Amino acid sequence: MADKLWYVLHTYSGYENRVKENLESRAQSMGMEDYIFQAVVPEEEETENKNGQIKTELKKTFPGYVLVEMVMSDESWFVVRNTPGVTGFVGSHGAGSKPAPLLPEEADNILRSMKANQTSYDIDLEVGEFVKIANGAFAGMEGKVTDINNEQGKVKVEVNMFDRLTETELDYDKVQRV
């Protein structure tokens, strides 16, 4: 069997995630899991300060393109090429010629840059623990941790305000263990 390599698909702009989902479900429904392994939409986090509010959103690194890891065969090439939203392979000269894969170092660089953007926080708290809020609107108040999101570095804390429990979401570094 040939090597599994990364190829670049050209898609309609704005349809990258839909193409990724279509490709993954088609690979499964058509029994191509041994040829089509994964599809990736290269994205990176972009942080923006708007009116004092820090907003982080994912931006597509290559709008209109999806990476697919696959073993090139006539069948897998046909399945990928005919996936809804795919307009073609990058590096294919048309007229039925198979496309050129990404060089391994190119694929590694893209995948590594995506992983670098997916920072995960190591939050040393547990649900049910009591914390003191260090700053912000609830500064000085104590509350109980109700939820922890390691990927975003956020904790939800239930505080007692005017004899009512109110839940607020805070950055992990804004709370201290009591």
TrEMBL record:
Record-annotated KOW domain positions: 124-151
Keyword presence, Transcription: yes
One Pfam family, short name: NusG
Keywords, sorted A to Z: Transcription, Transcription antitermination, Transcription regulation, Transcription termination
InterPro entries noted in UniProt: KOW, NGN, NGN-like_dom, NGN_dom_sf, NusG-like, Rib_uL2_dom2, Transcrpt_antiterm_NusG, Translation_prot_SH3-like_sf
Residues covered by the NusG-like N-terminal domain: 3-114
Classification via PANTHER family: RHO-INTERACTING TRANSCRIPTION TERMINATION FACTOR NUSG, TRANSCRIPTION TERMINATION_ANTITERMINATION PROTEIN NUSG
Purpose: Participates in transcription elongation, termination and antitermination.
HAMAP family: NusG
NCBIfam families: nusG
Family classification: Belongs to the NusG family.
Record-given protein name: Transcription termination/antitermination protein NusG
